[in-house]
Structures are given as C-alpha cells and as structure tokens.
Amino acid sequence: MTQLLHIDSSILGGNSVSRQLTAQIVASWKAAHPDTQVSYLDLAVNTPSHLSAESLGFRVPAGAEPTEAQKRENANSEALVSQFLASDVIVVGAPLYNFTIPTQLKAWIDRIAQVGRTFKYTDKGPVGLATGKTVIVASARGGMYSTSEGGQAMEHQESFLKVIFGFFGITDVRFVRAEGLGMGEAAKAAALAAAQADVTVHTQPAANESKAAAAA
Asked: 8-60: per-residue pLDDT in tens?
C-alpha cells in the first residue's frame, strides 16, 4: 500500500490553479497506482502557527520541562512530522506568492524540519533522514520564471522546495509547472496544457516498475 499525502496551500479556493493541479496529480497517480491510500492536508484551512518560543518546544534542551503551550504545539508538530514520514508520495500545491511559497506552506515546512526526524548533523555535515520518498510539486505562477535569467533570479519557490526536500534526503522531486497564468488567455491555456503533459509524465509507473508488474 502506497501512502500519498496531498497538500494544498493556496488561499484562492476554487479559483486556485495549484489546487486544480494537485487534484489532477492525485487522480492520475491513483489511476496508475491503484493501491494508493490518500490523506489530505489543507494548509489554508488548518495552518500551523508560525515559529515562536512555543512552537519551537520540540527543540528545548534534553531534560528541560516544556510549558503547557509548548506541549500543545509539540503535539501539533509531532502529528505533522509523523504524517510526513509515514508518506511515500507527497503532492504539494505551491503557488508563487511574492516570488516564494505561501507562508502557510513555509509554516508546515518549519514544523517538519526537525533534527533527528527529517535530518541530522554529522561530522561531515547534515544528512537527510526522509529518504526514499517522491515529491510532486504543483507549481503555479502568473509570470514566466523558468525561461529567462532575470526570472530565474527572482524565483524562490521551486528552487527553495527542491533545496529543502533535498536537505531532508529526498532526491526524487518532480515539478508540474503552470506559469504565465497572468499573461493572457492564450498564455494561460498553453500553461495548463503543458502542466497536463507534466501530470501524465510524473504520475506513471517508472519503466522498471512496469516491467516488474508485468512479470509478476
């Protein structure tokens, strides 16, 4: 049984392209992998609080007694990191807000970035502990950031997510990208068509997986 965690972070509800894309990604993945079990997290509805002395309670020194507020926040952090670690596939809706990811998504990342759970430090540097997972990011943005040097310099959305998931030890990070959404109807239609092609490519079984299934 494959565990898939479906995450949305857009604040636009039914008008969100990233939500549309994550739903399509999950449906396509389930069609190609029927043994998939899905859990859902809507960060625009259930947003973890941003980092504070209370929400950093899981980092208090060993032997220190957390406050009641820290205990409540610790329980929330533990639920989120456990859900993440139990997932084999994570589908993340990540619209571009002011050149980066939504604060709701950043708050979730801050909760699962835990020493000893998703990464550790060694004498040779940090090592990711959340290995063997697949992350598929639904990237939605109004302008064009992938095809020009100026746009790439302004983009801190896909680049950040690739870095942070890589820091957690995840090397299989895929992007379903719809960009240029705010540049007219023709550009939007082209962006959605390109994203649809990406959905198909990134949700089908790998060639060796298909061969193994055929031989079983």
From this structure: 999 999 999 999 999 999 999 999 999 999 999 999 999 999 988 888 766 66
Enumerate domains of the chain plus CATH numbers. 2-57+67-215 (3.40.50.360)
- pLDDT of res. 210: 46
Sheet harboring 134-141: ordered strands across? 36-42, 2-8, 89-95, 134-141, 172-179
Burial status of residue 207 (CB atoms within 10 A of its CB: 0-12, 13-18, 19 or more): exposed
How far apart CA 203 and CA 117 sit, in angstroms, is 27
> What CA–CA distances, in Å, run from 69 to 46, 49, 82, 117?
18, 12, 20, 22
Burial status of residue 211 (CB atoms within 10 A of its CB: 0-12, 13-18, 19 or more): exposed
Residue 202, CA distances (Å) to 52, 79, 171, 195 in order:
37, 28, 14, 10
